[in-house]
């Protein structure tokens, strides 16, 4: 098995493992942020460039460094490879550059965005970005459109990660969803406004890392951190029927697939991916439709985890709270640390 | 150092017709090779010739061919890259328009070497009329038994098709080209795998430039060793140069690699000097994506040696004081040229042509264009110049395909060598009106 060293931490991984996967095996701060890679979608990754790392030594056999940063999600490790992520200031600077570029045309209208609180771009911005943008020009704009009955597309917020395109390609049949136009004006589209009409189309919502594809049945009902995630299942003829219900009081506000700590849809015990069908997602909104398993274990650190199941305030993104206007008046929050440590709260 | 190989029969009327082409020795190399030689021998000759890809990167062709995977029972393809969309480059068009059979003969010979039963010429949409010329030539070749089953009784079967693109620079990037050829959106693929292993329809594929493939005919005619004697050092053979800009004789020239840049610009045989007797200001030597060099650095290297038209000499000094031969798009600018305006034109091009797949290029190309426009409008600040520099550095090396670099390098080079000109736009906005008038800028 190849031995790779990431930020001075050695790990032995199976042949064919990518640098990103190897880093995830180590865990912690050295894991590069990934916006477009999704472990359950073939050929995903490589687009956003946020997961770039520096390869200081290519392999034991050929120790030369790789001259350019590589996308860790699409680069397989070699035995003896030495990788630097957070221990390379140069790499962090390069990543901050990617983040800035990803954000120059992004509306950052988190206060009115349903994704806020579980948005990978928010996390990315706070953890890897700079305080302010140097972009001074008008941002590109698209009109929001409907993708079918239940899905809203806010192209302004899309980061063109191609995950939804891969879902359409790999999970649904008869794809009519893809990218039209090119460059800066490229956009996600169901060709000629043809709505996706497929039992599994709703999964595009779960893979979208930002608030570009959202669930119309949930739109503006609640901020996610006021809802309580509960795992549940039902006997479904179309899908695995294993879902996450998001409660507010007694009411099920939305149904999603179950996601792991990387925000990616989990696997079933038989190794298939726990994609869910549109019926489970959009039509089964009563507790009586489901067998409740219990509160979801959320180990992805973001605001959703703060409200109910994680006691530590450390996991709250201070800046997020501040942006949401939820920091109590008069509370001073240390910015830039990325975490709202109780010690940082000064009355 | 005049040496004509590719264009040696260029002056012959109707050389685009099969009969005329054959009357001047055309297809003799193919006939001889199919009769008396074998694929390995062709590959050996190409290796010996030292031929380097003429599409821009200058990768040794023989080496590229030897990387082609050859699994049993899997088709292999040769694809000719005739997308030629790099601003300042128009040599492939000239070659295909004038001597289409040279390319077709090269396609058959190269396919023979590679064991490809099918080949494609992918040509940019704007060259539709050239595609017709090629199709007519292919039809003639089929009728004469030079294409199709059992070519010239050799037992070698080969089909060659022309595919017209829809007009996108990015489809010149070899993997975007393959996607487009497969009927998909022309997005570059994420490598690996490389085309040599999984190219067209997932099969091993070689992608070569028009001029590279045409040169194979000449290599087999002369022999690899003889071909390697032409040129200088590792820059063997001849190269087509598309010369444009403020010169007296713009056009396509075949040069023996190693001609001094000064001779190329000033001799009557080539560019014939600067138009109106003005002074040379700068040259973009290898198509819009290579770094621009000021007159003093294009004529002489930083060490004071004469700069030559070769891969090595143009590259001397790295990007600090050198550039690249690239695709051979030689754009000459006289003393009245505005480097900032020129850069804006390039930046606009790359912004327009980015496929939008990866964030740095999709977002950064537009940003750079906007800042350059702001500077040209007279609203620029000194910080904008530094910002431009920073943005290009954030794009370079962080993208899926080299279009990111192609967009970043011109910006870096213009600032590196002509910073004062940017500063004067910032400091003297009142002068800009006149400049705009002079260059008939629209906005
Ligand atoms: C954005 C971009 C555009 C390109 N356009 C062309 C082109 O029009 N013609 C070409 O031959 N090569 C072009 N290339 C280079 C090709 O990717 C490839 O390297 C070349 O076709 C290989 O042929 P060669 O080895 O014969 O040079 C382009 C590359 C990039 C990144
Ligand atoms: S997508 Fe994320 S970063 Fe963008 S507005 Fe929505 S919550 Fe904010
Ligand atoms: S809509 Fe969402 S999932 Fe689809 S490409 Fe855009 S950001 Fe990615
Ligand atoms: S560098 Fe530009 S053209 Fe190349 S893949 Fe990325 S976005 Fe597309
Ligand atoms: S996650 Fe690797 S490039 Fe996007």
Please tag this protein with its features:
heterodimer, A: 347 residues, alpha+beta, Ubiquitin-like (UB roll), Alpha-Beta Plaits, five-stranded mixed β-sheet, four-stranded antiparallel β-sheet, 8 helices, 14 strands, 17% strand, globular, disordered C terminus, B: 443 residues, alpha/beta, Rossmann fold, de novo design (two linked rop proteins), four-stranded parallel β-sheet, binds flavin mononucleotide, binds iron/sulfur cluster, binds FE2/S2 (inorganic) cluster
Plain-language structure description:
- The complex is a heterodimer of chains A (347) and B (443).
- Chain A has 347 residues and is α+β, with helices and mostly antiparallel strands.
- Helices cover 18% and strands 17% of the residues of chain A.
- In chain A, strand 11 (228-233) and strand 12 form a beta hairpin.
- The longest helix of chain A has 16 residues, at 89-104.
- The termini of chain A are far apart.
- The model of chain A is unreliable at 306-347 (pLDDT under 50).
- With 443 residues, chain B is an alpha/beta fold.
- Chain B folds into three domains: 18-229, Rossmann fold, CATH 3.40.50; 233-334, Ubiquitin-like (UB roll); 339-442, NADH-ubiquinone oxidoreductase 51kDa subunit, iron-sulphur binding domain (de novo design (two linked rop proteins), Up-down Bundle).
- In chain B, helix 7 links the parallel strand 2 (118-123) and strand 3 (159-164).
- Chain B starts with 17 loop residues before the first helix and ends with a helix.
- The relative contact order of chain B is 0.12.
- At the A-B interface, helix 2 of A face helix 15, helix 16 and helix 17 of B.
